[in-house]
Amino acid sequence: MRTKQFKSESKKLMDMMINSIYTHKEIFLRELISNASDALDKLYFKSLTDNSVGISADEFVIRIELDKEARTLKVIDNGCGMTEEELDKNLGTIAKSGSFNFKNDNEKAENVDIIGQFGVGFYSAFMVSDEVTVESKAFGSDSAFCWKSKGADGYTIEPCDKDTVGTVVTLKIRESTDDENYDEFLDQYRISALVRKYSDYIRHPIKMQFTTKKPVEGKEGEFEDVTEDRTLNSMIPLWKKDKKDIKPEDYNSFYREKFYDFNDPIKVIHTKTEGQATFNALLFIPEKPPFDYYTKEFEKGLQLYSRGVLIMDKCADLLPDYFSFVKGIVDSEDLSLNISREVLQHDAQLKLIAKTVERKIKSELEKMLKNERETYEKFFNSFGVQLKFGAYDGYGANKENLKDLLLFVSSRENKFVSLKEYTERMPESQNAIYYACGETREKIDVLPQTETVKAKGYELLYLTDNVDEFALKMLGEYDGKKFINVCDNDFDLADEDEKKELKEQNESSKDMLTAMKDELKEKVNEVRFTGKLGSHPVCLTSEGGISLEMEKVLNSMPGAKENAVKATLVLEINGTHPVTERLKTLYKNDKDTFNKYTRLLYDEACLISGKGLDNALEHSNLVCELMTK
Ligand code: ADP
Q1: Scanning 124, 252, 276, 532, which has the fewest C-beta atoms within 10 Å of its C-beta?
Q2: Do 52 and 166 belong to one domain?
Q3: Residue with the nearest Cα to atom 9 of ligand 1?
Q4: Which of 38, 43, 133 to mutate to test the pocket of ligand 1 (most atoms within 8 A of CB)?
Q5: Which of 459, 485, 511 is the last residue of a domain?
C-alpha cells in the first residue's frame, strides 16, 4: 500500500500539532465533535428532500467510546460520511488553506496563538494521539474506506468493512509523560466535562456509556458497576441561554469557531423578540472584513434556525445589503421546518423578522457611535464603504436610514466626523457642507479650490473612496444644508462686491477668454476668471451633475467604454495672478505664444486636479519649446 504525503501546508500544521506545547490540547475533542455535528447536519439536510436517507431527525447522534486498555478514544457519527476521494481531499489538505499564515513555524508562541484562537480542525487530534484512524462510509456509496496516519510521514487509505453510513474517528491516545498527562482523555468524567465545556450547545445528542458504582439493593455496603447511556450535552444553543449566564468569552469563542474568524467580534448583539415575530437572534459585527468581503464571491446571510434546528445556512433575506457584514443566527418559533427557499422568500413572518433585525443592528450601531467612538471608527474603517454604498444604492431608498451612520474625514482635525457633528459646529456664516474628492487627503489638500474654504474657517470633508461623492449626491442635503463640491464651478464664497467686480473683469476680457476657449476646443466648455483661487493661478471645475471624480469612477467600471461619461469642464483663471497680465499682453502682441500659454495653463490645471494630462508628449514638447525661446 502506498503512503501518501500531506500537502506542504498541512504537513507544517501536522508538525506543529505533534510537537505542540500548547496547554489546551483538550480542544481536539471540540474539533472532532464539531466535524461530526456538521456531518450530521449535512445528512439531515439531505433527508429533508431525499427519502432514501432513512434516518429521522432524532436518530442523528454523536457517540464517544473510551477504551482504557487499548488507549483509544472514538468519536462516531451517523452523518454524511466521506468517499475515498473525500477522505483524501479533506484530510490530506487543510480545508481552509490560506487561513493560516505560517510566517515562522519555529516560533512556538505564534503557533500557540493559532491553536488557541482558532482551533485547527481535524489535525488537532495529533496533539494527543500517536495514530489517527478515520473509517467512513459516505451516504449513497456501497463501500467504506479507512484513512490512517501516524503523523507527518503521510497517510494511507484502503477499503474497510463498515455497514452503516457515517464516520468513526479513532485516536490512539499517547502514553503520558513526566510533563504531560494524556490519560485524562481516557477518563469518562474528564471527557464528559470537556463536552459540557466546549460542545454543550451542539444540537445533536453526544452520548457515551457511563459506568458508575451503585449500591446493590438489599445488600448494604456493597456496590456494583452500572453502565448506562448518557447524553453529555444540554443541547441548549448559546442563543437560547439566558444572557446573564453567558460570559463574553463564550460569545467570542462561539463566534470565532462558527464563523471562522481569527478575531473576536467588535460587537455582539443578543436579543429575544416577542410579539408579532418571536425569535432569538445572536448577531456579530466582525472587526475586519473577510478577505472576500468586497468581491462578488461574498455571500451575505444569517443562519436561520427553526426551534433550534438549522434550516438555512445563509439566509440572505434576513439582511439588507448595507448590513451584509453582520454574521449570526436567527432562531424563530414561527417558521416551519420544511419550508422551501422559494416559499421562505415570500414569507411574511420572515420579512417581519428581517425588519426587526435591521432595526436592531441600526440602533446598536447608533449606540456604538454615541458611546464607543473608537470602536465605531474601527468598525467604520472596515465597513464604512458598505454603508456609503447603501446610502447611494437603490436611488437612495435607504439614505434616511443610513445618513447618521456615515463618517467622513474632515480638515478640522483630520479626524472622522459625522454629518450631524459637522452641521452642528458650522459657523453661522456657512450655509453648505463643503467637500472635495481625490485619491488621498494629501492630494486633496493641494487642490487650489480648497484654500479659500479653509481660509474662511470652514470645514472640508475629504472624499477619498470611489463611492463617497455618489453617496453625498444621493443624500442631496443634510439638515437643510446642501453638499457642495469645492471643485464645482458654481462653488463661490465671494461676497456681492467681489462678485460684481469679477463679473466686470470677465466682461472686459471677453474676447481674450473666448479666444482661449477656442484654442482648447471641446476640452472645456468655458474659460473665465475666478476669485476663489487664493494664490494659485488656475484650476479646473466642472459644470452640471458629473464631477471629475465621478467621471473617473464611472468610466473605470466594467463596460463603461462604450458609453463613457464626460464631465463638463471649466478652466478658471485667477484674475489677480501675474500670469493674467502676461496673457493679456500676449493676446495683444503674440497670438501664437498666447495659444501655447493657454494650452499650458490647461495642462497645469489638469495635473493639479488629478485628472492627468491628455497628451504628455505634446505637453513636454510645449514646455521645452517655451524654455528655449
Ligand atoms: P473544517 O474546519 O472544515 O471542519 P477539518 O480539518 O476539521 O476542517 O476537516 C476537514 C474536512 O473533513 C471537513 O470540512 C469535512 O468535509 C471533512 N470531515 C471531517 N470530519 C468529518 C466527519 N466526521 N464526517 C464527514 N466529514 C468530515
Answers
A1: 276
A2: yes
A3: 122
A4: 38
A5: 485
Task: Say which DSSP state 36 is in.
Answer: H
Which residue, among 441, 404, 400, has the nearest Cα to 419 in the 3D structure? Answer: 404
User: How many Å apart are CA 244 and CA 281, to the nearest integer?
Assistant: 16
257 and 225 assigned to the same domain: no
47 and 145 in a single domain? The answer is yes
Q: Is residue 332 part of a domain?
A: yes
Q: Say if residue 310 is in the same domain as residue 221.
A: no
Helix (H, G, I), strand (E, B) or coil at 578: helix
Total domain count for the chain? 4
Percent of the chain with pLDDT over 90: 60
Residue 329 contacts by C-beta under 8 Å, 6 or more apart in sequence?
Answer: 237, 239, 280, 281, 282, 283, 302, 303, 304, 305
Q: Is the CB of 39 under 6 A from ligand 1?
A: yes
Cα–Cα distance measured from residue 184 to residue 198, given in angstroms and rounded to the nearest whole number: 16
Judgement on whether residues 418 and 559 belong to the same structural domain of the protein: no
CA distance 185 to 68: 9
Residues in the chain: 629
Identify whether residues 119 and 216 lie together within a single domain: yes
Angle, helix 8-18 to helix 108-118, in steps of 10 degrees: 100
DSSP class per residue in 380-432: HHHHHHHHHHHHHHHHHTTHHHHGGG-EEEETTTSSEEEHHHHHHT--TT--E
363 to 65, 358, 366: CA distances (angstroms): 48, 9, 5
Residues 501-510 have pLDDT tens digits of: 999 999 999 9
Grid coordinates 482635525 are at which residue?
A: 413
Mean pLDDT of 578-583: 94
The residue range of the domain holding 369 is 238-375
CATH of residue 141: 3.30.565.10
Each residue of 423-469: pLDDT tens digit? Answer: 999 998 899 999 999 999 999 998 888 988 888 889 999 999 999 99
Determine phi and psi for 163, rounding to 5 degrees.
Answer: -80, -40
76 lines ligand 1 (CB under 6 A): no
Sequence-ordered list of residues with C-beta below 8 angstroms from that of 289, at least 6 positions apart, any chain: 325, 382, 383
456 contact partners, CB below 8 Å, separation of at least 6: 429, 430, 493
Read off the pTM.
Answer: 0.69
How far apart are alpha carbons 265 and 256 in whole angstroms?
Answer: 8
90 Cα–ligand 1 center, Å: 6
Closest atom of ligand 1 to CA, residue 123: 6
Provide DSSP, 192-216. Answer: HHHHHHHHTT-SS-EEEEEEEEEEP
Q: In this structure, are 260 and 214 located in the same domain?
A: no
